[in-house]
Each structure stands twice: as C-alpha cells, then as structure tokens.
C-alpha cells in the first residue's frame, strides 16, 4: 500500500473511479434494492401474519436490510460489475505491457493504478449501502401497503423504533470492508495476470469469485464478533 502515500497527487483518477464504481453502479443497486426489499416484505409477512404481528413488518425489513442484506448485496453486485471491470482493465494493461512501460519510466503502478481504485471502492460502498437501505425500505413499504394491505404509518413508526445507530453502524462497517475487498482483489488479480489474452478472462473470473467468497466469509466473522454496542470499541 505504498502507493497510498501519493494518493493526493491522483485526485482526478480517484474521482473517475469514484464515478465508475459508485455512480455508474446506481442502476443495478436500485433494481437490486427494490427486489430485495419487496421479497423481504413478502417473506416476513407470512410468519408475522400467522402470529398476528403484522405491525412488525417494518422492523423486520429494516433490520435485515441495514445489518445484513444491504452491505452483502452491494458488495456482490459491485464485485460483479466494477470489480470484474477493474481486474479486466489492469490485466489488459499487463498484457499490453503498459504496466511495464510505467515501471520503466519511473511511475509506480501502485500509486497510479491501484491506490485510487482501492480508496474509491472503500469509500463509495458505504454510500451505496445507505442508498440500498433507503430504496429497500421504501420497496418493502410499497409491498406492505399496496399488496399486503398493512398500515403504512405503522410500518414507518415501528421501523424507526427498531432500527437504531448500532444497526446502521454494523452495516456501514461491513460495507467499508467489503468495498476494500472488491477494489483490492480486482487490482491484485489484474496486476498479477499473465501475459496472454486468456489471462485477462482468468484474472477477471478469479477476482469475482474470490471477492464474493471473501465477502460471505467475512460477513459471518463480522456478524459473529462485531460488538452490538459501538462504544465498546471506544471504552475498551
């Protein structure tokens, strides 16, 4: 990560990658959030209705999205769209010897290529996660009120009561880590690709598969060991 020392000199590249990884992912994130929020509303309504607890539809959707579904699905969707593109782009630069030319001219590839992408991916995924949560909650509300005939006011009231700072903090902490995985693994596999045209596809495939598996594994670790009270990290 030596390239991070010179990241301030690569602001234009950082902004380009911020746009590519974040802004250009809004379409796929929007549709994913709509469908996930709608499915969550349907699936949680069934057991809640059996016990006469339809008023807890909002908390069920909100907590599931905030703590788990939003960061995980954001990470997976961005890995499939931006992470794969990052790996393919850098692998192509390796095949066409652009990276070798940079090194010959005294330009650090870690500084010029990797650092802006890693920083952009790490910072943008929490923002996409917040957007995913909002869209997913609205989708759950729409299904709950228009299809399942629940009280919309109760949905938002109970959701606001159940979802607190701890839930948001845990979801955003996961999103930061997943964003780092997406961008860093895309850079790693692209940078270490072979010199043949076939290696571009191999690097892209390895980056996506490794990122998704690492997201799922780390999600389990974070879910099991993240403190429920973030003040624990400050006090201890």
Largest sheet features: none
H/E topology pattern: HHHHHHHHH
Q: What portion of residues belong to β-strands?
A: under 5%
Q: What value does the Rg take, in angstroms? A: 20 Å
- The share of residues in helices is over 70%
- Low-confidence parts: 230-236
Q: How confident is the prediction overall: mean pLDDT?
A: 87
Separation of the first and last Cα atoms: 28 Å
Tally the beta strands: 0
State the shape.
Answer: elongated
Number of helices: 9
Counting helices, strands and paired strands, the structural category is: mainly alpha
Domain module tally? 1
Chain-wise SSE layout:
Layout: H1 11-21, H2 26-50, H3 57-95, H4 98-104, H5 109-147, H6 152-162, H7 165-191, H8 198-225, H9 231-235
Helix pairs in contact: 1-5, 2-3, 2-5, 3-5, 3-6, 3-7, 3-8, 5-7, 7-8
Protein architecture, described:
81% of the residues lie in helices and 0% in strands. It has one domain.
List keywords for this structure.
mainly alpha, disordered C terminus
What would you say about this model in short?
By secondary structure, the chain is mostly helical.
């Amino acid at each position: 990560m030596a390239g991070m020392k010179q990241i301030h000199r690569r602001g234009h590249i950082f902004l380009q990658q911020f746009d590519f990884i974040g802004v250009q992912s809004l379409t796929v994130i929007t549709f994913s959030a709509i469908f996930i929020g709608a499915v969550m509303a349907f699936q949680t309504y069934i057991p809640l209705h059996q016990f006469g607890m339809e008023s807890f539809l909002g908390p069920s959707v909100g907590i599931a999205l905030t703590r788990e579904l939003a960061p995980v699905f954001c990470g997976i969707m961005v890995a499939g769209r931006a992470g794969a593109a990052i790996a393919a782009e850098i692998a192509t630069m390796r095949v066409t010897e652009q990276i070798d030319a940079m090194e010959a001219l005294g330009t650090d590839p870690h500084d010029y290529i990797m650092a802006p992408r890693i920083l952009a991916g790490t910072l943008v995924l929490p923002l996409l996660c917040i957007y995913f949560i909002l869209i997913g909650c609205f989708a759950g509300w729409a299904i709950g009120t228009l299809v399942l005939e629940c009280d919309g006011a109760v949905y938002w009231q109970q959701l606001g009561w159940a979802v607190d700072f701890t839930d948001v903090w845990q979801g955003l902490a996961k999103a930061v880590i997943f964003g780092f995985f997406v961008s860093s693994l895309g850079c790693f596999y692209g940078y270490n690709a072979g010199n043949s045209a076939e290696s571009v596809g191999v690097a892209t495939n390895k980056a996506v598969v490794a990122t998704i598996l690492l997201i799922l594994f780390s999600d389990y670790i974070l879910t099991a060991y993240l403190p429920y009270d973030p003040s624990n990290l400050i006090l201890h």
